[in-house]
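Re-running the complex after MR caught last week's input typo. The corrected sequence lines follow. Everything else is unchanged.
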Amino acid sequence: MLAALLLLAPLRLPAEAPGRGFGLAAACFGCHGTDGVSRGAIPSLAGRSERFLLLALGEYRSGASSGTVMNRIARGYSDEELALLAAWFAGRRE
Amino acid sequence: MRLTRRGFVGAAALAGFAALSRRLPAAPPARVLVVGGGYAGACCAKYLQRLDPALAVTLLTRPDPYYTCPFSNLLLAGRLGLDELEQRHDALAHAGIEVRYGEAIAVDPVAKRVQLDDGSALVADRLVLAPGVEFAFDALPGYDAAAAAILPHAWEAGAQTVLLRRQLEALPDGGTVLISVPPEPYRCPPGPYERASLIAWWLRRARPRAKLLILDAKDRFSKQALFREGWQALYGQQLEWVPGSDGGRIERVEAATRTLHAGFGFGPYRGDVVNVIPPQRAPKLLREAGLTDASGWCPVSPLAFESSRHPGVHVLGDAADAAPMPKSAYSATSQARAVAAAIVAQLRGEVPAAPVYLNTCYSLLAPDYGISIAAVYRVADGRLTAVPEAGGTSPLAADAAFRAREAVFAAGTWTSLNADAFG
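Corrected-run output:
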């Protein structure tokens, strides 16, 4: 019976719905490129280690590191969101 | 395996079902039609297709090439060629988006039907409308499409940008350049001031006795303190900004004599090169579809930029009333990615994740002198709101290295935006 149901189901299963991680990360693509892969002067984020990304974002937010625009942007995100962002970009291929 | 009679019948029935399910198509994929091939439309089509490859995504755009407004001010300074602003939609077509080249002439927001100028029509389950702005050629007396052929607006990159550059090249030393800036809202709030800066940069080198006057309808503008600090240092008396209350607000244009008339006895101003940036509004296509309100722009919900007038119709980019987000290419792509994710979620009957939008706008005061403004936007109490703790402009009194770094980042951001929307 299970086999029959599987056969009747649409052949293509829907891809995973875009979640919170994508929603947060997508805002960063404007500078850092699609999926965090930059082809220009802005650093790529894809494939950097989660620990590095979280540290960098935290330091931009606190002001411990001074960038140009990143200090102003990082202040708009919570701890939990910075963790989601770091995990999302760390999970992409460079 | 030993087949019993009953098992054999079952297996045969299964095979029959399998054959049937192969012949009968599964539920047809949802159709999303995106109108407008600029940053907002191209980017939204790209992410709709990426997030759900089973969607039937059609992008209706004007014939290629598309020229980017971002960085077109560098062409006016003689630093870029038109070909460097060129974008095409081939990569999106290769990615599986049906790209149609043509012009939409009518939208039925209930039937989700778009009429094209070649007599054909496109129908979809969802519409995403991103047609940009329309120049209000009836709002500033004397400035219509014919006047724009003499006094270019160059607020849509391409032939107009080249025309303005040619006029600048013909400017005599000691001549005057006028730039007229409209009231807000208009596309790219800091754009007129970047333009003035880069033209002044060129004048300083090529026409050192020429003067540039910005005639502004407003009394303040985006990144004002940073622009004025930079202008003072870079261009001195060669560039002058005239605020609206001090004679900057233009009330009438006389194209034949290249004259701008201001009220209250100010002016008139005569220029050798006159750049009129006209007042703007959402295009007629959207007004006639009943998608605009009294402001002239399209009211939308901040969650998925869905029209407040017609469900299932999303308006994004410059045509939407997305205040406090500025009308910028950066805002447009931020909206486009979030709207694509929201549409994909909605079509699956899911609730979209709460959106976070971002804007970062760089302006060049010289090719190696950049400044920026940024903001993070969220939905609070049903309204799009800039997060108060975040955002803001580059610092005043920064050193040359900081300004140079932001000029490099300006170019990097432009590269990323282009690759993200059109690549």
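None of the earlier attempt is carried over here. Chain B touches chain A through 54 residues (CB under 8 Å). The first strand of chain B starts at residue 31 and ends at 35.
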